[in-house]
Specification:
By secondary structure, the protein is of the alpha/beta class. It has 11 helices and 9 strands. Strand 1, helix 2 and strand 2 form a beta-alpha-beta unit. Helix 2 packs across helix 11 and helix 3 packs across helix 4. The radius of gyration is 19 Å and the shape is globular. 46% of the residues are buried. It binds phosphoric acid mono(formamide)ester and norvaline. Norvaline binds next to helix 6.
Length: 304
């Protein structure tokens, strides 16, 4: 039997997302109404994390419990992964003992290798190149606030990182346009996403990227794994803060999103992230809701 994995946003098509959005609405409603819903009772989730996490760990762990299953957390320090056991062997062993796995790691090639050796579905809980669960939660959040994202405009102010690549894959699937403004030296890698397309445009000036958009989004200037570059990045990203002036260039009813954790005064000013256009807490909360639908789908398939 073919196993479905979710290793990057483009692993699912529009039809899959439409289905998952409907399931998310339903599962969220049940949860808000304190209605017990245990489709994954007796099922186990294993989370293999090689980087820190608050939201991803918490939302998968809580989500699995709320669906009636169990969750087990492993990291590089407390497992044999940190002592050199191979990814292939680790995947073989873990996938014989559980029903679904979330991996947070460095290069995308690691999670691809993990999935190739897994007997159960693997979800990307963030790699250097992709963060599909977060962007799915963000699109669901947009939908809740503004309706369909089809033909809308999204500004990305920051480096070409995991979040941006997932946004760009999502733009192609959902039919929206991304205005990308990256600091010099931190541009899109065409090996990860082709620059020949009509779902994003590049802007040298981050303020111009915000012109007339429906959503402005950004991320930390230094992603996990790149800490050594922190000092250089602080200099290179000067001007790439999302502040009130940039939000004023966007549509009046534009939303502000940030996957969190945030650094107020660096990539976003406090008045924007804590202001009325910001939906950052809803984005974080929706990680729980979309991932419950995702786990249900990957373990049980479509519910008729
Ligand atoms: N947004 C996000 O993935 O947060 P964590 O790093 O806390 O999991
Ligand atoms: N781009 C950030 C996202 C954190 C959720 C990172 O990879 O650290």
């Amino acid at each position: 039997m073919d196993i479905k994995h979710f290793l990057q946003f483009s692993d699912f098509d529009f039809d899959d997302y439409e289905y998952l959005i409907e399931r998310t609405k339903l599962i969220k409603k049940k949860f808000k109404n304190y209605e017990t819903y245990h489709p994954l009772s007796d099922r186990s989730l294993v989370m293999v994390f090689e980087k820190n996490s608050t939201r991803t760990r918490l939302s998968f762990e809580a989500g699995m419990y709320q669906l009636g299953g169990d969750a087990i957390y492993l990291n590089a320090l407390n497992s044999q992964l940190g002592r050199g056991e191979s990814v292939e062997d680790t995947a073989q062993v873990i996938s014989r003992m559980c029903d679904i796995i979330v991996v947070r790691t460095f290069g995308q090639e690691i999670i691809e290798k993990f999935a190739l050796n897994s007997r159960v579905p693997v979800i990307n809980g963030l790699t250097n190149e992709h963060h599909p669960c977060q962007v799915f939660a963000d699109i669901f959040t947009f939908l809740e606030h503004r309706g369909s994202i089809f033909e809308k405009k999204v500004a990305w102010v920051g480096d070409a990182n995991n979040m941006l690549y997932s946004w760009l894959q999502a733009a192609q699937i959902f039919g929206f346009h991304v205005h990308v403004s990256t600091p010099c030296g931190y541009e899109i890698n065409s090996k990860i996403i082709s620059k020949n397309n009509n779902w994003f445009s590049i802007f040298l000036d981050p303020s111009d990227a915000c012109d007339g958009v429906d959503l402005v989004t950004t991320d930390v200037w230094t992603s996990m794994g790149y800490e050594k570059e922190n000092k250089e990045r602080l200099k290179a990203f000067d001007g790439w803060i999302v502040d009130k002036q940039k939000m004023l260039r966007a549509k009046k009813n534009a939303l502000f999103m940030h996957c969190l954790p945030a650094h107020r005064g660096e990539e976003v000013s406090a008045d924007v992230i804590d202001g009325h256009q910001s939906v950052v807490w809803e984005e974080a909360e929706n990680r729980l809701n979309v991932q419950k639908a995702l786990m249900e789908y990957l373990v049980l398939g479509r519910i008729k």
